[in-house]
Design a protein that fits this description.
The complex is a heterodimer of chains A (113) and B (110).
Chain A (H helix, E strand, L loop, with lengths): L4 E3 L2 E4 L5 E6 L6 E7 L6 E7 L2 E4 L8 E4 L6 E5 L8 E8 L7 E2 L3 E5 L1
Parallel strand pairs in A: 2-11
Antiparallel strand pairs in A: 1-3, 3-8, 4-5, 4-9, 5-6, 7-8, 9-10, 9-11
Chain B lengths: L4 E3 L2 E5 L4 E6 L6 E7 L6 E6 L5 E4 L2 E5 L5 E6 L8 E8 L5 E3 L3 E6 L1
Parallel strand pairs in B: 2-11
Antiparallel strand pairs in B: 1-3, 3-8, 4-5, 4-9, 6-7, 7-8, 9-10, 9-11
Classes of the chains: A mainly beta (113), B mainly beta (110).
Amino acid sequence: GAGVSQSPRYKVAKRGQDVALRCDPISGHVSLFWYQQALGQGPEFLTYFQNEAQLDKSGLPSDRFFAERPEGSVSTLKIQRTQQEDSAVYLCASRDRGLYEQFFGPGTRLTVL
Amino acid sequence: GQQLNQSPQSMFIQEGEDVSMNCTSSSIFNTWLWYKQEPGEGPVLLIALYKAGELTSNGRLTAQFGITRKDSFLNISASIPSDVGIYFCAGTGANSKLTFGKGITLSVRP
């Protein structure tokens, strides 16, 4: 079946612009995660949804970052007033009920100029 | 944020050689996962480990969950050129999120 998909794959924003990144999880997967991966680093946790409920947002770096999953399927990560330090790859992962394995999408590479 | 310890940062091996990678943590994890990432792609799951002491194989890959639950290793046997990539270990506990290492970049010389 289809894996996790993310769009856009690449996004260039001017400093101060708002961006929205989309994630389509594997069909039927209850849990959805967002991670941020800086160059040369491992992914770092941002936030986690179970169905439409955001259960953990402890990794969001500032109140400029906002995520939603209103119908328990597709999720959007929004970054307001982007800064240069927001430049990174944003990865989405989904997980089936009762399992620990997370499956990742290809990521969105965000470059803030 | 917290990251698991993976070293060295890069490894260079000859095609056909075996290679072993280690991952350590100051915290206990309930599950250890090993991922491989290639340029421009997301991490791909290789092996998942669920119990302390567990040894699991997936083709030429073998991984073990340390007895202390604070470490894991991944072994790749008879390496081939397509093994090139960045290998990440990741641990998860009751809070569901994955904590990753910085990754080891593997290069395979033909």
